[in-house]
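Input record (one chain):
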Amino acid sequence: MYKLVAIGGKIRGKEVILHEGENIVGRGNEVDHNLTLQGLSKKHMCLTVNEGKVYIEDLGSSNGTFVNGKIIKRQALNKDDKIAVPNAIFQLVYVKEKKVSLKNTESKEDVEIEQREVVPNHLPGKIRFHFKKKIMPIIYGFNEQYEWSQLVAILLGLFIIINIALTIFPVLRTNKNILVYEIALRGKHYADEVARINNVALQRRNLEQINTNFLDKEDGVVSYELFDLEGRVVRPLNQLNSYTNDTLSIETRDWIQKNAKPLIKILSDGKIGIGGAIKAYDVRTGREEVVGGISIRFSPRSLTAEAANSSQAYFEALSTSILVAIFFFAMIYYLTTRHIEQMQLQIEESLRGKRKELESKLLMKESIPLKNTINSVLQRLRELQSTDEGGFDELEDDGPYLRKLEDFLSGAQGPVLILNSEKNINRINLEGEDLMGIRESSSSGMSLLDTARDQGFAATVIDLCDQSANNDGCNQKETYEIGGHEYEINVASLMGKDGFAKAFYITFVRES
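The corresponding structure, as predicted from the sequence alone:
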């Protein structure tokens, strides 16, 4: 089986498996292998695999196809040949296929994986093992649909909600229950007060003579009904001798005949309903008997204040938790991506011959196996390059290449910028300084991204440098507006013996 392995460019590490027959590679949709590379044609090239041999053909692409540094139309390929297209360099790799006959392969692989990691004997280890094997696969499934940064944000959001639900809500609920209980005691007190004030009338069972005027002046009492055991309303006077149809009063009438405690109910409109019995002393039996009931609807200021305080406490807790979560999300995000960015930078330096292996001062023991693997791959690549090209100095200096371009600068007509292999500023002529607003004396050795006023301009130049470096130093150009005028930016690079760009020569041509 043959495959293409990207060893240079923006998709470094990507593999393209070549099947028997024609394999059309390009940027369009109607190809066998779609690669989203700038400069690649919709149908760029075709690789044909036939009985163990591979042939390559350029399909009339705009920027051409290069094999081992030479532009081609059609030719046969050998194992380890390097194929260059815009923004990528591939190497043809042959992989021996091992045919293994297994029944239910998927389940056997799962069993093997499970057997590799044994369940620890101690409790913390068991918890960690089952968390990793039972819960994390669910999270991994979500990670296949959402970016890990979005997933971390979602998990932090769930943490906030669960934390508030388990800490703030119980406290607020307890405060409200205490307040409701105090209001219920007030309702019972009002019922007892009605019985005390109207003791004589109640003993005579003369409910029409009951006085409830004090309830009209009590704070928080929205409405009330006093009724006999048959449900006939006796107070307030505007409902005298009518039968109640209020749900709270009906429920209170049924409640007081079976329960000694008052009825407490949170009503749908946010008010509190209290139902209690009106009792009278019976001289014949020597006991208090229930002769009627009273239902009161409360909406005291204390209840409104409690609701406002609860809302404010919830909002403050939510706001504080969100701010803390954002802060910790930023720390987790940058702490994680810093390792990746550092590895990516060091891989680039290693591939350019500036570093022998990956190393980091940041501690993450989980990344050590990955670093060891990458270091092994880099070492193997250096060995392959040494064998293919007869050896080279892996720490080749930019200096000789930069000095060559500086000689060109002295006779240049128009603005010129020279960057070193790290895309840091090396030289700018006077016309270039006036055009870009960058002074060589204050920016030498600095990144173009850090010194250019227009980040879009800097990004365009950097991208053209990458394109030229990935196309064996060929000139790359693009139009960009600078100072209100259109300029054609041309970037050519000098390639070192190690196959990497050592210096970039950028010129600017004003379009008419």
